[in-house]
Amino acid sequence: MSRLVVVSNRVALMEEGKQAAGGLAVAILAALKKTGGIWFGWSGNVVDGESQAEPSRTDVGRLTYATLDLGRRDHEEYYNGFANQTLWPLFHYRLGLISVNRRTREGYERVNAYFADRLEPLLRPDDMIWVHDYHLIPFGDELRRRGCSQRMGFFLHTPFPPPELLTALPNHRDLIRELCAYDLVGFHTATDLRGFCDYIRTETDGTVEQRGAYGSAVIRAFGRTLMAKVFPISIDTEALESLARTAGRSRQAERLRESLVGRRLIIGVDRLDYSKGLPQRFAAFEQLLESYPEHCNRVSFLQIAPPSREDVPEYIAIRRELSEMAGRINGRFAEFDWQPIRYLNRSFGQRVLAGFYRLANVGLVTPLRDGMNLVAKEYVACQDSDNPGVLVLSQFAGAAHEMGEALIVNPFDIEGVGDALQRALTMPLGERKERHAALMRTLRRNDISSWRESYVDALTRAPYDFPVT
Ligand code: ADQ
What we know:
Homotetramer. Pathway: Glycan biosynthesis; trehalose biosynthesis. It catalyses: D-glucose 6-phosphate + UDP-alpha-D-glucose = alpha,alpha-trehalose 6-phosphate + UDP + H(+). GO terms for molecular function: alpha,alpha-trehalose-phosphate synthase (UDP-forming) activity. The protein has 469 residues and is α/β, with parallel strands linked by helices. The protein has two domains: 4-234 and 449-460, 3-Layer(aba) Sandwich (Rossmann fold); 237-445, Glycogen Phosphorylase B (Rossmann fold), CATH 3.40.50.2000. Helices cover 43% and strands 20% of the residues. The protein is built from 16 helices and 16 strands. The strands form two sheets. It has a ten-stranded mixed β-sheet, with helices on both faces. A six-stranded parallel β-sheet has the order 13-12-11-14-15-16, with helices on both faces. Strand 9 (216-221) and strand 10 form a beta hairpin. Helix 3 (102-119) crosses helix 4, helix 9 (251-260) packs parallel to helix 12 (350-359) and helix 10 (278-291) packs parallel to helix 11. The longest helix is centred in the last third of the chain and has 21 residues, at 313-333.
């Protein structure tokens, strides 16, 4: 059996039972636990001077972590710069937020080449290499230049924008040529796959051979043949279900329940990121209190939002905006014994979160654009099936493709989201149970194991020998 080598920007060395904030880390660890292999990437440390010359290795069972510290300049240009100030906003359809300059683009290419130099000596000929996310698009091409012919797959955790947006990036063709160095390119949704295929059709001489109802496509471009396919990421449904059964009785969940003194609870849990639609969400909650004043003093909104990417100016700006909004809305509606919004800039362990989800009558997940959004799935899996809460979900989260039984909303439509909250808070038990049962069927059928297995299975079959049709 081939070894799996996972490459991701961030390697989260995790002790048993500890959880990192970030869907990627959670999903990868679950994938590698089963197969064993190497997890290679940045350690998360930034050092003065040059990036670390040789990777540090840590063995945990059959899994080897190989990590590199990044020098300050590399971190600034590759990570804060091109990845998070150019590709992240571009891939989330936010052209107004992209910064474009040659220095950070060069830094991005340089760090990808440097990572490839460091991984190459650790590889065996029959390894399967699975590269994750927008930080590492050129990585496979760099390995190919070094003569690596192993099977290589890439999975994009963010959305993939339509070509009309992607072409705002100077040298966009180079980036897509690099993407075509992989044998398999995975996306969360058919919309993302379509964006990629449309780019190949309109911006290259390549061809696209669609298979199924936009579930996959064979791409012939830049002298290569590859498969592009939809693999919607998911959660460990069974584990979360059983965790939530007892987590509702944990000390923190008890404290939360007592603090509510019979009031209902709406919950939001997100990294503090402008893609998550948090200002619009706060405004929608305000709208609920304004349009349906019967909820005043009857409902609390708990928003958990640990800060991320704090070196990037847009993240400082959104944090300030949210603090101001929470203060203003609380000042407007609070009673001496009730605070409408409980806004927390910190993260919690999975068990505590599971308990909070279970207590919450409404899960409010309203990104303006999101690759998948695992919080939506986690919220549903943590409900009590005899008395489940209601998921209110943005149509622009990848999760909406699979979770049509949620209350699907347009996050830009503040009044519409306010109305959906009202509907969720007043939904009869029968309807709540039906919707929850349907969502659970989806989450049981497609959990993190089936996601991993279907991806690895598809990669195992590379390079593909497609019949010409
Ligand atoms: P993220 O943008 O980080 O992931 P998401 O999919 O919601 O978004 O994953 C977040 C994960 O971190 C969840 O497992 C959640 O429980 C956890 N988390 C969030 N806030 C937390 C907190 N305060 N405390 C503890 N844990 C917290 C990116 C993409 C998504 C895609 C995932 C996986 O942006 O669209 O779904 O990768 O591909």
